[in-house]
Design a protein that fits this description.
There is one protein chain. By secondary structure, the chain is mainly beta. It has a domain of about 120 residues: Methylamine Dehydrogenase, Chain H, CATH 2.130.10. It has one helix and 30 strands. A four-stranded antiparallel sheet has the order 4-5-6-7, with no helix packed on it. The longest helix is centred in the last third of the chain and has 4 residues.
Length: about 375
């Protein structure tokens, strides 16, 4: 199933046929959507945030639970103001276990997935500190910034989802800003200096103790779209993949005649362990590991369509599992998110955001390709 939220409507499609996956095909909300969880709960529930009205002074303070199986509405709840500077223009929603957290500028709340009951409110932080976002899954971590002006001091905390209390706190070096989470277990974080001159990777072990800390070369793509929007979603690193003790990231080159590549970095040392060159100047995006191979998307270029590749983890030449139609290569270049079905039989390209204006029809938001 493919689920996409746009403006006031949530759509669901059968990934194999493109037909509507819900009885009505879609679910319309009362007002415009201003946040949605990127993952679902174990029983197939997601949560979306939407505005309280159509006014210019509208507030993003409404939550609704949706059942992905049936397309039906669940509970709705109004997010309370947690303090005087709780600014609700958008909500970053993160599902972790049985709760969903909602973070906005200067505030946070958490609610039970089952019934929408509030679990905890503002994190218990020192004066001058504010939550900037959560990352969740098998564990829940919160990012915190402190200070009245840049450069802020940043921290990461592991949070007890039942109480909102911090189990431990790790403080980043002065001038370093966290931009994205590659993995929750182990906790691997993309950080950057204030001037964005250096990008580093921090690996934290039990109780937030540093395990390693290394810099990325200028030619390595950090893999996180959230790097352009700090304090937004920390789990927006679609161009990165971790398998075991290896972090896979795209590598580009400004040298004429030098191809792009996908490199594997040792999480313990930061040293290069493997390198898979691109077929040409197209970018490579790791998707996931299945058995002893990694599925990789070779992005379309102006002269070549995209392709789904199988790359042996032990080294060797990539094998093309799926070649996309040449006629749609230029359209393929506009899509920034890639998914596959198990075994790589179906490739899905989606738009993270919809370009254009209200007077024009938007481009197709989803393209799927199969054998």
């Amino acid at each position: 199933m493919l689920v996409k939220a746009t403006y006031k409507t949530v759509y669901a499609f059968d990934a194999n046929t493109g037909s509507a996956a819900w009885p009505k095909g879609h679910l319309k909300l009362p007002h415009a959507i201003c946040g949605a969880s990127h993952t679902s709960s174990d029983d197939g529930k997601i949560v979306v945030a939407y505005y309280d009205s159509e006014r210019e002074t509208r507030t993003c303070n409404q939550l609704m639970q949706l059942d992905l199986t049936t397309g039906s509405r669940g509970w709705t709840v109004k997010i309370p103001n947690e303090h005087g500077m709780d600014i609700m223009t958008r909500q970053d929603l993160v599902i972790s276990g049985d709760i969903v957290t909602a973070t906005r500028i200067g505030g946070n709340s958490a609610f039970a997935i089952e019934d929408g009951e509030k679990v905890f409110g503002m994190l218990d932080l020192k004066d001058g500190c504010r939550p900037s976002g959560f990352a969740g899954g098998q564990r829940l971590v919160a990012f915190v910034n402190c200070g009245s002006a840049e450069p802020y001091d940043y921290q990461v905390q592991e949070i007890d989802p039942a109480t909102g209390k911090a189990r431990w706190t790790h403080s980043f070096p002065k001038g370093e800003t966290p931009y994205g989470v590659y993995s929750l277990d182990p906790l691997v974080i993309n950080v950057s200096t204030q001037a964005r001159t250096k990008v580093r990777v921090t690996v934290l072990g039990d109780k937030g103790k540093p395990r390693s800390h290394f810099a990325l070369s200028d030619e390595v793509d950090p893999g996180c779209t959230s790097a352009d929007m700090p304090d937004s979603s920390y789990q927006s690193c679609p161009n990165a993949l971790i398998e075991g003790n290896t972090l896979y990231l795209p590598q580009t080159s400004s040298d004429v005649g030098t191809r792009s590549a996908l490199i594997g970095l040792d999480l313990r040392t930061g040293k290069e362990r493997s390198k898979v060159p691109s077929p040409d100047d197209g970018a490579l995006q790791p998707i996931r590991v299945e058995g002893d191979v990694m599925l990789v998307y070779a992005g379309a270029t102006r002269t070549r369509a995209g392709a789904l590749l199988s790359v042996p983890l032990t080294g060797g030449e990539p094998t093309a599992l799926l070649r996309l139609p040449h006629a749609t290569r230029l359209t393929q270049r506009a899509y920034d998110q890639v998914r596959t079905s198990p075994g790589g039989g179906l490739l899905v390209l989606t738009l993270g955001s919809i370009p254009g204006d209200e007077d024009r029809d938007p481009p197709p938001q989803i393209m799927t390709f199969g054998p």
